[in-house]
């Protein structure tokens, strides 16, 4: 074995250098790119014309931690509803910036509904869906003109399901003339990247500031996304929005998003992410926000909520007590965060361990800020609690879950409450 000679490096590569775009609503500012943290955003799936329903879902997404929320603006009713949605959010004390998602008729809606154009904090334009032929350039220019008039940043979002066919034909012709033509897959990649960059340059020529442009090239395949964004990031310095365009349902969508974005984020690529999960019928839209946060937090890129470490269970843990306690504690911590992040600065850095038996329980509990090692099958019915590496007490009886939750709350108040007092003084 070779001697231990050098430090073993850990952590992601340095963030790619990019410009910084500022998304603003009132006093709220969200920075994308530059040295800003990677931003988590989401999108509603309500009918935008339903003002109350949309506002409630936006509130839920923002409370879950979505720092930007995108809404569909697809017709006159939706455009007319946007100012009312913004007003309803203001009444509820929700200051999350709103992004308007425009396709096909965006130039008309932004022109005919100036209050909508003003109420939004950012526009998303898909250059493949702004018109065909000569109309395309004119209608794209009209949308950029509105962004300039109202001083709004724009995401130029290319999607391989709606790629500009004229541009694709041009690149296919160029490829056919090569002595060694590229594969069809490579041509598609090239078309996506070219569309994004050329439209960004066109927007700048029309007067939109370079600090008001964000790019995305969305595909639905993991390896495709990695390949496209590696090349896109090398060819421009605009901030980049990451996301699979249709990640899928349930575990498939979560795994695909994590696999693709984990690689890119580890390489320092990506300034804002959206996890495009297809919710199960009646499913919670906020799940995509939680998954996005957990990707960033487990990679060590950001801190959002205290992390709960829990063992997977085995034949030593035939009781479900530790599983139920881990779920209860995780839900409790996340539910408290909208209040805690204001009252207890730094609480998002806390680690809580809920372990199921004596094998790894005490050790993992000692490594956490606060941990509990529950008894496994056949073990003594006692649950030692460790606080900052030291055994503090042992819980017994039928109220272990309630008592441990109270201990966690007491720890938060004592450990992070003083930090809040210091910060306010």
Automatic annotation (TrEMBL):
Pathway(s): Isoprenoid biosynthesis; isopentenyl diphosphate biosynthesis via DXP pathway; isopentenyl diphosphate from 1-deoxy-D-xylulose 5-phosphate: step 5/6
EC number: 1.17.7.3
CC cofactor note: Binds 1 [4Fe-4S] cluster.
Reaction(s) this enzyme catalyzes, per UniProt: (2E)-4-hydroxy-3-methylbut-2-enyl diphosphate + oxidized [flavodoxin] + H2O + 2 H(+) = 2-C-methyl-D-erythritol 2,4-cyclic diphosphate + reduced [flavodoxin]
Coiled-coil stretches: none
Domain IspG TIM-barrel residue range list: 29-292
GO terms for MF: 4 iron, 4 sulfur cluster binding; 4-hydroxy-3-methylbut-2-en-1-yl diphosphate synthase activity (ferredoxin); 4-hydroxy-3-methylbut-2-enyl-diphosphate synthase activity (flavodoxin); iron ion binding
Iron-sulfur listed as a keyword: yes
Residues annotated as domain IspG C-terminal: 308-408
InterPro entries found in the cross-reference section: Dihydropteroate_synth-like_sf, IspG_bac, IspG_bac-typ, IspG_C, IspG_TIM, NO2/SO3_Rdtase_4Fe4S_sf
Alphabetical keyword list: 4Fe-4S, Iron, Iron-sulfur, Isoprene biosynthesis, Metal-binding, Oxidoreductase
Function recorded in the entry: Converts 2C-methyl-D-erythritol 2,4-cyclodiphosphate (ME-2,4cPP) into 1-hydroxy-2-methyl-2-(E)-butenyl 4-diphosphate.
Protein name: 4-hydroxy-3-methylbut-2-en-1-yl diphosphate synthase (flavodoxin)
Annotated source species: Undibacterium jejuense
């Amino acid at each position: 074995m070779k001697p231990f000679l050098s430090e073993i490096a850990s952590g992601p590569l340095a963030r790619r250098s990019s410009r910084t775009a500022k998304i603003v609503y009132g006093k709220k500012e969200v920075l994308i790119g530059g040295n800003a943290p990677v931003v988590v955003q989401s999108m509603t799936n309500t009918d935008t014309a339903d003002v109350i329903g949309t506002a409630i879902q936006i509130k839920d997404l923002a409370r879950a931690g979505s720092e930007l929320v995108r809404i569909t603006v697809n017709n006159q009713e939706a455009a007319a509803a946007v100012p009312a949605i913004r007003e309803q959010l203001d009444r509820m004390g929700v200051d999350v910036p709103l992004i308007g998602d425009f396709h096909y008729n965006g130039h008309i809606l932004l022109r005919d509904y100036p209050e909508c154009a003003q109420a939004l904090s950012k526009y998303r334009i898909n250059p493949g869906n702004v018109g065909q032929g000569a109309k395309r350039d004119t209608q794209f220019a009209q949308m950029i003109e509105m962004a300039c008039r109202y001083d709004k940043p724009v995401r130029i979002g290319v999607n391989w399901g709606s790629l500009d066919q004229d541009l694709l034909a041009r690149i296919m012709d160029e490829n056919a003339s090569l002595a060694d033509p590229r594969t069809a897959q490579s041509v598609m990649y090239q078309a996506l990247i070219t569309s994004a960059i050329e439209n960004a340059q066109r927007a700048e020529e029309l007067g939109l500031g370079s600090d008001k442009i964000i790019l995305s090239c969305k595909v639905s395949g993991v390896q495709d996304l990695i390949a496209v964004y590696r090349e896109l990031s090398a060819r421009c310095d605009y901030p980049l929005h990451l996301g699979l365009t249709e990640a899928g349902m349930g575990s498939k969508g979560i795994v695909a998003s994590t696999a693709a974005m984990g690689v890119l984020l580890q390489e320092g690529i990506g300034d804002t992410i959206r996890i495009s999960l297809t919710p199960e019928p009646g499913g919670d839209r906020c799940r995509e926000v939680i998954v996005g946060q957990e990707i960033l937090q487990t990679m060590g890129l950001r801190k959002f909520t205290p992390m709960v470490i829990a063992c997977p269970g085995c034949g030593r843990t035939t009781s479900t007590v530790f599983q139920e306690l881990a779920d209860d504690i995780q839900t409790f911590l996340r539910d408290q965060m909208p209040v805690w992040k204001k009252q207890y600065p730094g609480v998002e850095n806390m680690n809580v361990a809920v372990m199921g038996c004596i094998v790894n329980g005490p050790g993992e509990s000692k490594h956490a800020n606060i941990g509990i090692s529950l008894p496994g099958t056949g073990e003594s019915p006692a649950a030692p609690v460790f606080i900052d590496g030291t055994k503090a007490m042992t819980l017994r009886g039928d109220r272990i879950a309630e008592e441990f939750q109270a201990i966690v709350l007491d720890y938060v108040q004592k450990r992070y409450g003083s930090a809040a007092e210091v910060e306010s003084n």
